[in-house]
């Protein structure tokens, strides 16, 4: 009995020691798991910094730690690939956006330009005229409007064809651009054989002189129709309206007056310059 009692006490003591050691080891493992959990929860994929190093221990905690490290390495690799893909995508989007912007700019330019002569078209004229009118009104500046068109242009088209008519329009557009020396002068083709000139800070005498220069240039104009025929004696008629825009004036009044002057030029035999003589701004 004494021997059995000693053996039982020894067994109990060993068991107690084993339990204490187990609990101590378990607590140590819990600390390692807690630290590992805290590091996992604090991991930021954007920074890709994971402070846990590979474990040399082959216990459960060590296996879990190494598995997590391997998973984080894969996540970092995928994140890097995703960043590169996003960078490429951003570059492609920027490039395509710029291409679209350039295309839109070209379309806008085409929508405001007469493709045959390269001059601004009616749409562009309407935009610019409103701005020029306001500037002249604000500064008390004289503004001359000239509407001009080619005499007997329909006959040119009917006799020689539209390709010849187009060639005439191109030549006249070149003469108009070459005659205009001031950067403030504005020239546009507003339809068919009709052109319009806006001459800021120019009185009727200056406007008439400008038109006469163009008319003189037209005398030397010749367009080759084919190897045998040369189209010459192409003439222009001009209608001029000059005024100082004021508050309450309607911008289209100047256009109406220039158009009436052009009609008078046509009625008086064409190939001439007529300045509107009615009351200014009526």
What does this structure look like?
With 282 residues, this protein is of the alpha+beta class. The protein contains seven helices and seven strands, in the order αααβααββαβββαβ. The strands form two sheets. The protein has a five-stranded mixed beta sheet with strand order 2-3-1-6-7, with helices on both faces. It is rod-shaped and about 150 Å long. The N and C termini lie far apart (140 Å).
| Percent of residues in helices | 55-70%
Mean pLDDT: 80
**Strand order, sheet with most strands:** 2-3-1-6-7
Shape: rod-shaped
Structural class: alpha+beta
What is the β-strand count? 7
Number of helices: 7
Q: Unreliable stretches, pLDDT < 50, 5 or more residues?
A: none
Order of helices and strands: HHHEHHEEHEEEHE
The CA-CA distance between the termini, in Å, is: 140 Å
Q: What is the radius of gyration computed over CA atoms, rounded to a whole number of angstroms?
A: 45 Å
Biggest sheet statistics: 5 strands, mixed
Give the percentage of residues in beta strands: 5-15%
């Amino acid at each position: 009995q004494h021997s059995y009692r000693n053996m039982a006490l020894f067994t109990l003591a060993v068991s107690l020691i084993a339990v204490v050691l187990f609990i101590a080891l378990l607590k140590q493992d819990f600390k390692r798991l807690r630290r590992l959990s805290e590091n996992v929860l604090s991991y930021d994929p954007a920074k890709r910094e994971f402070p846990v190093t590979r474990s040399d221990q082959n216990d459960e905690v060590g296996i879990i730690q190494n598995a997590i490290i391997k998973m984080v390495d894969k996540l970092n690799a995928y994140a890097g690939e995703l960043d590169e893909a996003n960078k490429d995508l951003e570059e492609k989007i920027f490039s395509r956006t710029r291409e679209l912007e350039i295309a839109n700019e070209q379309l806008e330019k085409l929508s405001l330009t007469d493709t045959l002569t390269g001059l601004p078209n009616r749409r562009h004229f309407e935009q610019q005229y409103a701005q020029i009118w306001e500037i002249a009104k604000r500064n008390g500046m004289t503004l001359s409007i000239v509407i001009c068109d080619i005499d007997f242009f329909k006959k040119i088209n009917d006799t020689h064809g539209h390709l010849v008519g187009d060639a005439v329009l191109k030549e006249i557009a070149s003469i108009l651009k070459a005659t205009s020396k001031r950067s403030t002068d504005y020239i546009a083709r507003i339809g068919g054989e009709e052109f319009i000139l806006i001459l800021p800070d120019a009185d009727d005498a200056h406007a008439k002189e400008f038109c006469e220069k163009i008319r003189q240039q037209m005398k030397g104009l010749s367009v080759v129709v084919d190897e045998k025929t040369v189209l010459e004696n192409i003439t222009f008629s001009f209608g001029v309206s000059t005024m100082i825009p004021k508050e309450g004036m309607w911008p289209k009044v100047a256009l109406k007056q220039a158009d009436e002057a052009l009609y008078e030029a046509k009625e008086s035999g064409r190939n001439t310059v007529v300045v509107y003589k009615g009351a200014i701004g009526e």
